[in-house]
Every structure is written in C-alpha cells, then in structure tokens.
C-alpha cells in the first residue's frame, strides 16, 4: 500500500468548520488495517451488524470473507464460558419451536426465534453459526407420479439466525420402493443427517442417509442410500452407503475435525464409525477400555475442546472419556467419574448423559456441560471441586434438544448467490 493511499477502513477526525481557528487543520488518525480488523473481530455479531452503517468502508470490511473468517477464529473458537451459547429445539410435537440462549451462566433466559418453516422447523445440526434445518411435516414433500411411483423430497435449508440469511437446498427426491399398508409411504423410511464444515476445501456439507424398511433385521430386506450436499457446488451427489450403517444407534452425528462420528452395534459389541467429509471414506475409531460395565444403549459421543469424547452411564456412575490424539486408542483419558446421586441417577435405571461442551470461566475454573437423556436436562460439572449443578433456563420448553451455537457472520448462500447479492447491494448503495 502506498503512503498517499488511505487503507480500506480508517478513522478520520476533523476540526469543526463552524468554529474556525487560526491554525485549523485536518487531522487524520489512521490505524493499521490489521489492528482495526483485530479489534472488531472480538465483537458479537449483533454489534457488527450495526457497525456496518458507520460507513461503506466499514460495511465492506465486515462483509468481507477475510473478516468473516477472522471473526470466526477469534470470537467463535474462544474457550471462554462467557461466549457459550445454545440453540434449543422444542421436542414437543404440538409446538416444535426454536429458542436461543445467548449466555449459559447463572442467569439463563431463552428467546424464541422466527424459524424458516415456522412451527414445522426441525434442527438437523449446528456448525460455525449455521443451522441445518428441515421441514418437519414430511407429508408436504410426498409426490405421487402417474407411473404409480412415490417420491419423497424433504425441504432442507441452511440458516444463519443472526444475519437472517437463508438458503434452501435443491431437492433430492427419494424413490420409495416399499411402504407400510397401514401408515403409508413415510412409515417405511428413516432419515439420518449430519452437517459440518470441510476445512480443507472450505465447504459446508450435508450428509443424508436414508433407510427403507429400517425395522427389518435381514440386511437383504432394507435399502440404504447416502447422498452428500456441497454448498460450493450447490448440488447433491450419491455416495457409497455400507450396509453396517443400518446398525447405527446414535440419534445424532458428532463432528470432530473433518469427520462425522456415530456409535453402531457390531456383533455383540459397540464400535465408532467415522465418515471423512473430505475423502468421503468410512473408517472405525477405537473405543477406550471402559472400567464400568454398562449397556450398549447408555453410551453417547460428544465433543470436548475439539476432542472426541464418550460418556458411559451405568446405575452406579457415569464415566466421561476424551481422546487426546485422534485415532489413537492409547490416548483415551478418563476425564472424570460422576458418582451416583439421588438427584442425578435413578435407582435401577442409568441416568443417560452425553458430553456437550468444555469451558473455562472467568475464575479459571474448568467445567463440563452435560446433557441428560431423554429429558435433555443440562448439568454443569466442576472438574476442580468435583461437584455438579443443574442448569435452569427461564422460558425454556418442558422438553428440548440443546445444540452448541456460536454467533458468526458465515453466509449460508452458495458462492454464485453471494456474488449476485453483492452486486445488488452495490447497486443499491450507488
């Protein structure tokens, strides 16, 4: 940059023209570009959206890809508990609303969000400030063809609830070859979704696994199909779907690195299967040597400080494990053991827990946020004091599914649509 050129964003301070002075002069205070960007990158999204009105230069900075990634790295990936936010999905079938909790602390309040599909919006995943949502009323997506074939094409969208930007994914119809004579087409289908970021290609992907006749124990009686959506290409592609995906027991996938993870039953044991987003390959991840015997159905995966974690619940206690080095069996470390308590565990049924977040608060205390299943209650566990407390959220629904959410400026639009919107924005300014 030449000395006589102003940087793209700078602050000016000039003397007032209504009060002339003898030695009045214009004084321009310049700050280095990286300093301005660094300061703004630690601000919340709501403030940045307001600061776009300061000037066109500030607006172009805040909306630039460089700043969006800088903000995501500095603000979103900070380990401070003050920046831990949640999205709550109401799991009551009558009113499946969506709420946001901006700060998970001592005083927690939630605010209802205006979802893209109204009360029929269901969350499929959360990543980098984007929510992958679908229309929960599947009956609207069933089409009947004259040839006598049924097709299902769920309506899926990527949504940034803070910037209000929304992108509805192209339809990917599924031909239904069999259906229940009592309940119709949808009773014979089971969907499994995963949403995450491919850091190598800087792309957001949605994985959809569809099972037809999912209740059939014989692998020859059910059909598996898998498709991957790429935001960059704005299209779906069919990929390989191994037969063992039929035995996935995890309700949701867990994103660690650039791979989705599930628990599945293999023979008489349990395995972790992973899907590499970049290579589109499946592999297995070793389990830790659990010290407490527990049912296969009371184990849950999670992410703690960007590491794969596992919770194993029994009638007596709950073990929380963390894999320090990904893929290495010997790197599994037991983070803590939560003993049975009358207010935490039932006498004959394990209190099923799943790891949700690992934070460090202002007092340098390390805590782990756990969610209880199936009631989805939240629990803080203090690693230093070895105590726990239930998290109370005012205004929260009776039953809900929590998702870790980070406010960001990441756009859910594909590159071509972002270019079109950028040109329209420039024309409106001119």
From TrEMBL:
Q: Which stretches does the entry tag as region Disordered? A: 1-21
F-box domain location: 25-70
Q: CDD domains from the entry?
A: F-box_AtFBW1-like
Which InterPro entries does the entry link to?
Answer: F-box-assoc_dom_typ3 (IPR013187), F-box-assoc_interact_dom (IPR017451), F-box-like_dom_sf (IPR036047), F-box_dom (IPR001810), SCF_F-box_component (IPR050796)
The organism sits in which domain of life? Eukaryota
The UniProt entry, under Pfam families, shows: F-box, FBA_3
Q: Which SUPFAM superfamilies match?
A: F-box domain
Q: What is this protein called?
A: F-box domain-containing protein
Which species is this UniProt entry from? Populus trichocarpa
């Amino acid at each position: 940059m030449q000395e006589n050129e102003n940087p793209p964003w700078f602050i000016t301070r000039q003397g007032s023209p209504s009060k002339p002075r003898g030695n009045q002069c214009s004084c321009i205070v310049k700050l280095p570009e990286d300093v301005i960007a660094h300061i703004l990158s630690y601000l919340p999204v709501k403030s940045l959206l307001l600061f776009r009105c300061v000037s066109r230069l500030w607006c172009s900075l805040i909306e630039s890809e460089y700043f969006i990634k800088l903000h995501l790295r500095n603000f979103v990936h900070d380990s401070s508990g003050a920046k831990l936010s949640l999205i709550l999905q109401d799991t009551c079938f009558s009113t499946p609303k969506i709420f946001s909790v901006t700060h998970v602390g001592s005083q927690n309040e939630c605010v209802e969000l205006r979802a893209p599909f109204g009360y029929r919006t269901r969350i499929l995943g959360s990543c980098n400030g984007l929510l992958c949502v679908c229309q929960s009323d599947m009956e609207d997506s069933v089409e009947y063809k004259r040839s006598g074939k049924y097709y299902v094409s769920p309506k899926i969208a990527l949504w940034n609830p803070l910037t209000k930007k929304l992108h509805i994914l192209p339809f990917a119809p599924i031909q239904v070859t069999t259906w229940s004579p009592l309940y119709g087409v949808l009773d014979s289908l089971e969907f499994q979704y995963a949403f995450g970021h491919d850091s190598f290609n800087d792309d957001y992907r949605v994985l959809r696994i569809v099972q037809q006749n999912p209740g059939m124990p014989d692998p020859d009686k059910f059909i598996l199909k898998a498709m991957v959506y790429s935001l960059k290409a704005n299209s779906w592609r069919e990929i390989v779907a191994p037969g063992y995906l039929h035995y996935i027991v995890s309700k949701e996938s867990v994103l660690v690195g650039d791979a989705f993870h599930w628990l599945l039953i293999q023979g008489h044991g349990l395995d972790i299967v992973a899907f590499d987003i970049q290579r589109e390959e499946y592999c297995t991840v070793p389990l830790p040597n659990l010290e407490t015997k527990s049912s296969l159905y009371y184990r849950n995966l999670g992410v703690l400080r960007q590491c794969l974690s596992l919770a194993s619940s029994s009638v007596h206690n709950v073990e929380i494990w963390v894999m320090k080095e990904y893929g290495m069996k010997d790197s599994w470390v037991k983070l803590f053991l939560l003993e049975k308590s009358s207010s935490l565990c039932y006498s004959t049924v394990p209190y099923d827990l799943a790891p949700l977040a690992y934070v460090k608060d202002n007092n340098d205390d390390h805590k782990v946020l756990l969610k209880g299943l199936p009631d989805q209650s939240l629990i803080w566990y203090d690693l230093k004091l070895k105590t726990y407390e239930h998290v109370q959220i005012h205004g929260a629904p009776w039953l809900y599914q929590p998702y870790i959410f980070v406010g960001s400026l990441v756009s859910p639009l594909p590159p071509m649509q972002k270019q079109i919107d950028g040109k329209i924005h420039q024309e409106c300014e001119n």
